[in-house]
Amino acid sequence: MPMKNTHDRYGWLSVALHWSMALAVFGMFALGVWMRDLSYYDPWYRQGPFIHKSIGILLLGLLLFRLFWRAINPRPQDAPGMKAWERITAHLTHYALYALLLVLMLAGYLISTADGRAIDVFGWFSVPATLHGLENQEDIAGEIHEFLAWILIILAGVHAAAALKHHFYNRDNTLLKMLGLSRQPRRD
C-alpha cells in the first residue's frame, strides 16, 4: 500500500491516522466518563486526568498533522453510485468531525490550564498555559468539553454506521478505501 492516497484508496499514512485517532478518541471518551466518578482518595484521581491530558495534547498534534496531510494529499474519489445528498452529507460530516475535535481539544486545554499551570505530557514536554485566570474558565470550558465529547461520539457513531451501510447495503468501496484496500463495486 502506498504512503500517499490514490484516486482509489487512502494511503497507509491516512489509514493509520484515521484508525489510531478513532481508537484514541473512543478511549479518551471512556476515560473521561470514568474519571467523573473518581473520588479524591481514589488512586487514579490524579493519574487518570494526567493520562487524559497527555493523550489529548498528542491527539491535538496528530489532528493538526492530519489536517495538513489532508490539505496536501489527493482525496480518493467517492463511490460511483453515491447520490449528491450523500456526497454533501459525507463531506459536511467530515468537516464537522474535524471542527468538533479541534474545539473539544481547545476546551480541554482551557480546563487544564485554568489555574495557570502548564500541561505536562508524559514527562516528555510541557505545554504552557497561555490563556488562564478567566472567570469560571474551568467550569465553562468543562461544560463545553463534555457537551462536545458527547456530540463527537454520536456523530462518529453515525459516521461508522454510514460506512457500514455503504459496505453491506450499497456494496461499494467506501469502507474499503479507509482500510487501504481497493475494489471495484459489485454489480448485481
Give a structural overview.
This protein has 188 residues and is mainly α. It has one domain (12-178). It is 64% helix and 3% strand. A two-stranded antiparallel ribbon has the order 1-2. Helix 1 packs antiparallel against helix 2 (44-72) and helix 1 crosses helix 4 (137-170).
- SSE ordering: HHHEEHH
Largest sheet: 2 strands, antiparallel
> How are the strands of the largest sheet arranged?
1-2
- Provide mean pLDDT, rounded: 91
Number of helices: 5
Proportion of residues in extended strands: under 5%
**Radius of gyration over alpha carbons?**
19 Å
Number of domains: 1
Which residues sit in consecutive blocks of at least 5 with pLDDT less than 50?
none
Binned, the helix content reads 55-70%
- The helix/strand class is mainly alpha
SSE layout:
Elements: H1 12-35, H2 44-72, H3 84-112, E1 119-121, E2 125-127, H4 137-170, H5 174-178
Antiparallel strand pairs: 1-2
Helix pairs in contact: 1-2, 1-4, 2-3, 3-4
